[in-house]
Design goal:
Layout lengths: L76 E2 L2 E2 L173 H5 L1
Antiparallel strand pairs: 1-2
């Protein structure tokens, strides 16, 4: 930098105190290389030494999935299947088959073949009406009608234009009833307080009384100081006992002489 150039402001070029990101074209130390120790995040391009650890004892170590000597294999079964030695057993004597009962010539009746073998003229009979026909809801011939051939509502032919004379409308005619419109008495008078200032209003309220207690209290005549025994000594009091029943058995205490008798 030459000192002859004009500088604007107070900034001047200076040497940086440390390396800055603008001096490097690559990300630099932003990305760290994978480690070479341990298993987690080990560098895949480097050799990893074998590692051993003390594993835990499995719960199914003493469990066996083979049947063992539980099943008894027959002696005639080999690895290729059953051997070819013949085997015999004692069975019961089979029953003799019965003779086939073929029908003889007398079991046939050719004269009864009738229409099955010989030609016969057609025969008809009048059978009774079945019960299912009573529940049949099939419409009869009179239930169907042909489309009309006259008028505007024809189906199979072209219909000519038709005209009709309709009644006179009551709206806007001399026959219109104008009494159905509301009269002046149908409208209520609007309160002036709605569109003008509302004057102050006063009302007559009820007379207010001083709140008091309405509980009934005993007067001087309701108290009896002479009957109070909590604060003074009570005089002795006596009473006549209950009268016993005449049918009560008297108490006998001396039974010595009567027992000897």
């Amino acid at each position: 930098m030459s000192s002859t150039e004009a500088w604007v402001g107070t900034w001047r070029p200076h040497k940086p105190r440390g390396p800055i990101a603008a001096l490097y074209g690559s990300p630099g130390p932003k990305y760290a290389l994978p480690g070479l120790t341990g298993i987690t995040r080990h560098d895949p391009t480097k050799y990893k030494a074998p590692m051993f650890s003390f594993g835990t004892r499995h719960d199914e170590a003493n469990f066996t999935s083979s049947p063992g000597p539980r099943y008894l294999v027959p002696s005639n079964i080999t690895r290729a299947g059953r051997d070819g030695t013949p085997a015999f057993s004692l069975h019961s004597r089979p029953k003799e088959p019965k003779m086939f009962q073929v029908p003889g010539p007398g079991h046939y009746s050719p004269e009864r073949s009738g229409k099955s073998v010989l030609r016969s003229s057609p025969a008809y009979s009048l059978s009774a009406r079945s019960k299912d026909s009573a529940n049949s809801q099939v419409p009869g011939p009179a239930s169907y009608s042909l489309p009309p051939m006259l008028g505007p509502k024809t189906v199979v032919t072209h219909a000519a234009p038709t005209y009709s004379l309709c009644g006179r409308s009551k709206t806007g005619s001399f026959a219109e009833d104008l009494k159905k419109t509301p009269g002046p008495a149908a409208y209520k008078v609007v309160d002036p307080c709605i569109y003008r200032s509302k004057p102050p209003q006063f009302s007559m309220t009820g007379r207010n009384f001083t709140p008091g207690e309405t509980t009934k209290k005993p007067g001087p005549g309701a108290h009896f100081p002479e009957r109070v025994t909590f604060t003074r000594t009570k005089a002795p009091s006596f009473s006549f006992g209950l009268r016993h029943s005449e049918y009560t058995v008297p108490l006998i205490s001396d039974m010595g002489d009567e027992c000897h008798k």
